[in-house]
Amino acid sequence: MRPSPFDPPDPRFVTTGEHPLWDEALAAVNRDLAATLPEQRPLCLVAYPGWERAPDETERVHVALANGDAHGDCLWPEPSAAGALRAVAEAAQDTVMELLWQAWPVCTLHGLGMHVTEDAGRPSWWCAGGSRPGDPAHVRAAIGEMDTVHRPRRPNRKRRKDRGPR
Q1: How many CB atoms neighbour CB 132 within 10 A?
Q2: Average pLDDT in the 99-107 region?
Q3: Residue 17 to residue 24: CA distance in whole angstroms
Q4: Contact 144, 138 (CB under 8 A)
Q5: 57: how many CB neighbours lie within 10 A of its CB?
Q6: Kind and range of the H or E element at 81?
Q7: With pLDDT > 90 as the criterion, what percentage of the chain qualifies?
Q8: Cα atoms in the 13 Å half-sphere on the side-chain side of 3
Q9: What is the pLDDT of residues 36-80, one digit of tens each?
Q10: Where are the stretches annotated Disordered (predicted)?
Q11: Which residues is 24 bridged to in the sheet?
Q12: How many C-beta atoms surround the C-beta of residue 85 within 10 A?
């Protein structure tokens, strides 16, 4: 039976070394994923066949979950490592947020989803800050350097009395 023209094509897993800049960028993003969502397996790159109407496009590469599911725009060749890192981080964020249905990465100070920005020439995760005047926007970390899982202390949270000894 022939596949329907509306069925998506099967992706193939991209092997290490095919796209060195994207491989390096994905390794940095995976460090952040491991630090903030340790239960998730590392992201990977998958390639879909190019569009029939664009003969010069052989494949479209996407950032995907470990099972090969991807969401969002494909990656476009970048001339620099910083550009590749920004592109891979944004694509990874799209895939994680849409397929896992959660904001990622989340600022540990404000509980808000962060965005990719440039800070001192380095792609970084940026938080818009809290709603109070004392909670300004800030850069949380350079991409690839969110190496600790930090849960904010909640001073106003009531302790449960039914907990046993610790």
Answers
A1: 8
A2: 92
A3: 10
A4: no
A5: 12
A6: helix 81-100
A7: 49
A8: 6
A9: 999 999 999 999 887 655 555 678 899 999 999 999 888 988 889
A10: 144-166
A11: none
A12: 25
Question: How far apart (Å, rounded) are the C-alpha atoms in residues 22 and 84?
Answer: 6
Residue type, position 141, single letter: A
Residue bearing tokens 């302790």: 159
Reading the block at residue 2, the tokens are: 């022939």
Buried b (16+ CB within 10 A) or exposed e, 23-54: bebbebbbbbbbbbbeeeeebbbbbbeeeeee
What dihedral angle (degrees, nearest 10) is formed by the CA atoms of 19, 24, 30, 36? -140
Map tokens 């100070």 to a residue. 109
Which residue, chain included where needed, has tokens 């969110």? 146
Closest-CA residue to 49 (of 60, 35, 38): 60
Q: Tell me the residue ranges of DSSP E strands in the chain.
A: 12-13, 44-49, 59-64, 115-119, 122-127, 138-142
- Cα separation of the two ends of the chain: 62
Tens of pLDDT along 22-41? Answer: 999 999 999 999 999 999 99
pTM: 0.79
Matching residue, tokens 């039914």: 162
Collapsing DSSP to helix, strand or coil, 8 comes out as: coil
